[in-house]
């Protein structure tokens, strides 16, 4: 591998010196930095446009240089952490190329942040619903590359549901456009879906055409506090069957409430939770219902309250829109509140069929007990996608090791329940190697064949998203 200065100089000569430099320490890590994962790279390229991305990929492909694509660096599986070669940063591809409210669509470059796009879209009276939790920093390209979810993925779908087409650079440096403003296109294999969720291992997404919708005009937020995980499982089913059709259905278990419950911003809720016979077994479900008519939406909320009361919810409430917004902010902070208990945590993103959420919660807590670790779980119950979490002190290597072992058992548990090791963060560098456990041999071989066909030299994100 060429020395830093050589690669920076050679790449600079090939694509423009002002677009190539040495990476900073922050550009060698991502949202997994607390695990100690640090990468290395000989150069960082930040091209100003898609054509220069193609030029850079062509040069790297000719010279056998590995490429790690970098969006906002918020990923939680180490996918943007390089292992040699170059970091290809999308930071300069930050233009909204077109925004057509009259046709509910836009074309945006990969480096536009999720919140920037949402703001622009709101200004023209529309909505882009995907809401992964780090939207201030994450890029649209990163959202596509991880097929990001978030609370509203339950009703609105993951990022893929909003993608009409992509512009991408494929090996050995070809700029392609697949799909576009057309709302339906089944002419070829679904290459758009192949690139969405490919975590930078099949090519570089440089832009995307996205679908937009008018926002809901009425909203209702309903909370149900269940005395245990089995009654909460009934509550999850009730949300599917009672006719309320929530767009988000979030879950927070007793371990999470232990750290975040005291600040629950709904009048009386903190007291109610702490007065349960066994607060550690409690489960809080929060549902967000959207609609066009205030009365009809409120009626749907009432239907959900009835269903949850029948399932044994000890307490329910349907607060105002302002209270719902405060509740959303509180929900976003629970991960930090739980981590603060011991200074750190290993939080996973397994997903199981929605009828197995209680089994996942029980099994994950049992894994934690076996390893002498404290446990908390929260997440997207409507998608069966739960952040099962083992608490640890990052400076204690013994607990760190135990948490790693616990996570391995958690993955096996999720698979045994018919689920997946990753519902939204992807395999990246940290979880790669688990596909064989989850899929049959022939399916893994097909996965490998796709990689070999699109990236024959194996230079895009080497070692990531493999079997
Ligand atoms: C506080 C917090 C909350 C989060 N909440 C959620 C959540 O609710 N739901 C969820 O799904 N995720 C969540 N995440 C994870 C993360 O934010 C998302 O996965 C996000 O989509 C990553 O986008 P990014 O731009 O930061 O990508 P990066 O971290 O830069 O990269 C992620 C992966 O995508 C690849 N990549 C990035 N850009 C491109 C591109 N243009 N072309 C090809 N490949 C590319 C990278 O190589 C890497 O493999 C959260 C993260 C944090 C820190």
Given as residue ranges, the uncertain stretches (5+ residues, pLDDT < 50) are: none
N- and C-termini, Cα separation: 26 Å
The gross shape turns out to be: globular
> What value does the average pLDDT take?
94
Distinct ligand kinds: flavin-adenine dinucleotide
| Rg value | 23 Å
Tell me the number of strands: 16
How much β-strand is present in the residues?
Answer: 15-25%
Describe what this molecule looks like in 3D.
- The chain is of the alpha+beta class and 467 residues long.
- Helices cover 36% and strands 19% of the residues.
- The chain has 16 helices and 16 strands.
- The strands form three sheets. Strands 13-10-12-11-15-16-14 form a seven-stranded antiparallel beta sheet.
- It is globular.
- Bound molecules: flavin-adenine dinucleotide.
- Flavin-adenine dinucleotide is lined by residues 30-31, 68-76, 79-80, 90, 110, 132-134, 138-139, 141-143, 145-146, 148-150, 199-200, 204-205, 424-425, 428, 461.
- The site of flavin-adenine dinucleotide (FAD) has 36 residues, from strand 3, helix 4 and strand 9.
């Amino acid at each position: 591998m060429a020395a830093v200065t050589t690669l920076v100089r050679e790449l600079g000569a090939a694509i423009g010196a002002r677009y190539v430099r040495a990476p900073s320490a922050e550009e060698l890590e991502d949202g997994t930095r607390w695990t100690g994962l640090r990468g290395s790279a000989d150069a960082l390229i930040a091209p100003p446009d898609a054509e220069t991305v193609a030029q850079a990929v062509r040069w790297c492909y000719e010279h056998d240089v590995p490429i790690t694509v970098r969006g906002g660096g918020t990923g939680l599986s180490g996918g943007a952490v390089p292992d040699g070669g170059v970091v290809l940063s999308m930071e300069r591809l930050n233009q909204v190329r077109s925004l057509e409210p009259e046709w509910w669509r836009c074309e945006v470059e990969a480096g536009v942040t999720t919140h920037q796009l949402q703001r622009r879209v709101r200004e023209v009276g529309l909505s882009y619903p995907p809401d992964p939790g780090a939207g201030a920093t994450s890029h649209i390209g990163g959202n596509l590359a991880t097929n990001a979810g978030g609370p509203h993925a339950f009703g609105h779908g993951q990022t893929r549901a909003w993608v009409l087409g992509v512009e991408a650079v494929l090996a050995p440096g070809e700029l392609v456009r697949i799909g576009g403003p057309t709302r339906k296109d089944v002419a070829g294999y679904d290459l758009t879906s192949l690139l969405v969720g490919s975590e930078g291992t099949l090519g570089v997404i440089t832009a995307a055409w996205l679908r937009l919708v008018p926002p809901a005009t009425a909203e209702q937020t309903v909370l149900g506090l269940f005395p245990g995980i089995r009654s909460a499982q009934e509550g999850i089913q009730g949300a599917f069957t009672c006719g309320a059709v929530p767009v988000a259905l979030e879950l927070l278990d007793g371990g999470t409430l232990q750290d975040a419950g005291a600040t629950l911003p709904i009048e009386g809720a903190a007291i109610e939770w702490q007065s349960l016979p066994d607060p550690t077994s409690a489960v809080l479900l929060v549902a967000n219902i959207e609609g066009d008519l205030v009365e009809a939406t409120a009626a749907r909320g009432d239907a959900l309250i009835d269903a949850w009361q029948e399932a044994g919810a000890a307490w329910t409430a349907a607060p105002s829109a302002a209270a719902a917004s405060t509740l959303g902010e509180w929900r976003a902070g629970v991960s930090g509140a739980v981590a603060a208990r011991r200074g750190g945590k290993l939080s996973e993103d397994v997903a199981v069929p929605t009828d197995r959420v209680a089994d996942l919660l029980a099994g994950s807590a049992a894994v934690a007990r076996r390893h002498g670790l404290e446990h908390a779980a929260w997440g997207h119950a409507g998608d069966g996608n739960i952040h099962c979490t083992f608490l640890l002190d990052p400076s204690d290597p013994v607990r760190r090791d135990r948490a790693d072992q616990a996570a391995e058992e958690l993955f096996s548990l999720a698979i045994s329940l018919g689920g997946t090791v990753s519902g939204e963060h992807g395999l990246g560098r940290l979880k790669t190697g688990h596909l064989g456990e989850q899929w049959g041999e022939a399916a893994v071989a097909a996965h490998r064949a796709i990689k070999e066909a699109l990236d024959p030299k194996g230079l895009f994100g080497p070692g990531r998203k493999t079997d």
